[in-house]
Amino acid sequence: MKTASRIYTALVMIFLFAPIAILLVFSFNESKSLSVFSGFSFHWYRELFRDSETLGAVRNTLVLAVSAALISTVMGTAAAVGIHKLKNRYLRAAMDTVTNIPMINPDIITGISLMLMFVFVGRLFGAATSLNFATMLIAHITFCLPYVILQVLPKLQQMDKSLPEAAMDLGCTPMRAFLKVEIPEILPGIVTGLIMAFTLSLDDFVISYFTSGNGFQTLPIRIYNMTKKTVTPKMYALATIIFFVILFLLLLSNLVDEETAQAVRAAREKKNARKKG
Amino acid sequence: MKKILTALLAAVMLLSLCALAGCGSSKTLTLNVYNWGEYISDGSEDSLDTIKAFESWYEETYGEKIKVNYTTYASNEDMYAKLSSGAVSYDVIIPSDYMIARMKDEGMLLELDFANIPNYQYIDESFRGLYYDPDDTYTVPYTYGVVGVIYNANVVDENDVGDWDLMWNDKYAGEILQFNNSRDAFATAMYKLGIDVNTTDKAEWDRALAELKTQSPLVKSYVMDEIYNMMESGEAAIGAYYAGDYFTMLDAQADGVDLRFYYPERTNYFVDAMCIPSCCQHKELAEIFINYMLSEEPAIANAEYIYYASPNSLVYESEEYQEELGEEAMEILYPGIENFSELYNAYAYQNLDSEMLDYVNTLWESLKIA
């Protein structure tokens, strides 16, 4: 039984990581071939950093992902706090459903409907081109928002309601109580939401595809468009770099989680010790 | 930890603000160019970065800064969808022939002012009066290509080579690749049988389907750009593709694979041409750009990068270019077609109406399901 489960785990790991490993290995290949590894070289990494179009697309993608993640985190946190404070049970259920719709909706429907809306509004104002960076940003915020709310809301529910009340009893203004007591308490949720929004925005293809306009093209779209000819190994190099950046972010977020958990545990022990004493 | 996080967040926020400010502040004239992916010399492998070169050339010549917004698409249909949504505005596009015919019919193209494109004189005579633009008013050819058969000489016997029959030879069952796209796949059968690829006679399409059905047990798989890896690695031995792409495969072939190429007698020709769509906002600038693309240095750089044949005499008569490509490549890419326009108008794909396309797709599905 034990060997069976080991084999199973190994298989799962292979299926998850073999593609990435192959990509990584062939990004260092000297030649273009995917079948023969002719020698180790940084050739494709050098080529990548000389390709101004691709680097431009990377820059666009990062600018978009960072802005979308930050804005949707702020908006999402505010929305979660608001939803949490709702007293009416039905209204709350309704809000939950509304937030979930963009998440459940297939990307292609979100993409097309956003594009139609942008074109419609653009026409209304008589603009010749209605798709640009701003519309893409709005689209990305739209689909990141529910994920942030979904990360923050449970943290709010876990939080002891009497904590902010106690703070206010001790003389905090509501704002100060929110910033000093509630925010630190739900910070892990906010950070996870931020990282999730960032990665979601980073690799979105479908919605970006429909809402991209003149001159602002993200990396996934650029790679897709290379398929008239072959995708060059430059892209393997780029994907390898992105993989390590994401890995680093993931480790960082786990570290943050672990540290807050430790802090909470330490505080609780202190409290218990005081109670006993 | 919290302090580090705050600092990180602040830094990220600042960065994105700077980036946003950078995006918003450019007031220089902008030319929007929409082209196929990987279809221009982009500065890799020490080649010329055509777009950058144009920007600096323009500034030197006209004393004015411009910015070229260069974006790409993956297929004619993608480009058509984006343009007809009415949400974007492009100044120069480079579609393929059949799409040009369709866009022209729908009034989506503007007539060119050839006074601004003097370099048009270098376009070979045989590229005038092609079916998609019979009066040469809308287009300037960019590249052209001919479909041929690629085979691995270590597997295929030279005696079996010739015309389309090789792709139907049961000696090579399981070694043959066929196009995974209805138009191209049907065309191979139609050229083989001598049927007009633009026919509206359904019985002829049925005949082509029967031919494809006899081939399908021999086919290893139906592919598009997967053909590169499968031919390069020797996984398959026979497949049809464009001459220019054959050289891409040749560059990357594995040990023990010896790829060769030949043209069947009747085969497909395509031309991709530069046009100005009706949503264009800087028509004169777009014409200056098209003219620049025809001048010697960028035209040669593009032809060397894309590896498709160029209709521009500044390119194919250039000694530098001929040397770079080598004799064999020159012979294959430029088969010295005397009566190009005649062959082209006879064999190139033309736009089928939607009823015919539906019919072809039904046939195609019946082949793929069987």
Q: Which sequence of SSEs, written as H and E, runs from N to C of chain A?
A: HHHHHHHHHHH
| Main interface by residue count | A-B, 48 and 54 residues
* Sheet having the most strands of chain B: 6 strands, mixed
Discrete helix count of chain A = 11
Query: What is the mean pLDDT of chain B?
Result: 89
Describe the 3D structure.
The complex is a heterodimer of chains A (277) and B (370). Chain A has 277 residues and is mostly helical. Chain A has a domain at 49-228: MetI-like fold, CATH 1.10.3720. Helices cover 80% and strands 0% of the residues of chain A. Chain A is globular. Helices cover 43% and strands 15% of the residues of chain B. Chain B contains 15 helices and 9 strands. The longest helix of chain B has 23 residues, at 2-24. Chain B is globular, with a radius of gyration of 23 Å. Mean pLDDT of chain B is 89; it is low at 17-26. Chains A and B meet through α3, α5, α8, α10 and α11 of A and α1, β1, β2, α7 and α8 of B.
